[in-house]
Design brief:
Helix content is about 60%, strand content about 5%. The chain is mainly α. It has one domain.
Length: about 180
């Protein structure tokens, strides 16, 4: 079976041969057959693209469902982390302090716990802290939407912008 391009090429060749002369019945039948084949091919392409679009919707829905599940699992994980932190930072130190020996040691059948002190999170007031504790971060990025807009305007006016290029593309709008 011929491809759409091959059929279209045959149709164009036929159109060239009959361009300046009277079209015979055979040529007319051939042209009609080729046009019908092209129409069938395009309809098949259209059916295929509709099916692809349906699959895209299904994939988008699956992605959305997975994102929601990921968010739900992240929330559960944060809850578990908070619970673990509460046990490790509040409950166990309180129990060891009350039930442990004078060295801050308490033993169970499963584990041995030792109470110790360490430094916690540092609290900083940015308005009062010395400049040596501040850091400045600069992040450079390209504004592609502005570059695209300026490149389109420059292209329309026959100009070029250094470091930016844009090309015209052919697209098909289905309705």
């Amino acid at each position: 079976m011929a491809t759409t391009q091959e059929i279209l090429k045959q149709l164009l060749e036929l159109e060239e041969t009959i361009e300046n002369k009277v079209e015979s019945q055979h040529e007319r039948d051939t042209r009609n057959t080729l046009q019908l084949e092209i129409q069938q091919k395009v309809e098949s392409i259209d059916e295929f693209l509709v099916e692809v679009r349906k699959r895209e919707f299904i994939m988008d829905a699956s992605i959305e469902a997975l994102k929601e599940e990921e968010d739900r699992l992240k929330t559960r994980r944060r809850a578990l982390t908070r619970t673990k932190d509460w046990f490790n930072q509040k409950l166990l130190p309180f129990v060891i302090e009350k039930l442990g020996d004078e060295d801050g040691v308490w033993e169970t059948n499963i584990a041995r716990y030792k109470l110790y002190e360490t430094y916690g999170e540092v609290k900083v007031d940015p308005s009062l802290v010395d400049d040596k504790y501040k850091k400045v971060e600069i992040r450079e990025s390209v504004d592609k939407s502005k570059a695209r807009k300026d490149a389109m305007n420059a292209h329309k006016n026959g100009k070029l912008i250094k470091g930016i290029s844009i090309e015209r593309l052919k697209r098909v709008r289905r309705s």
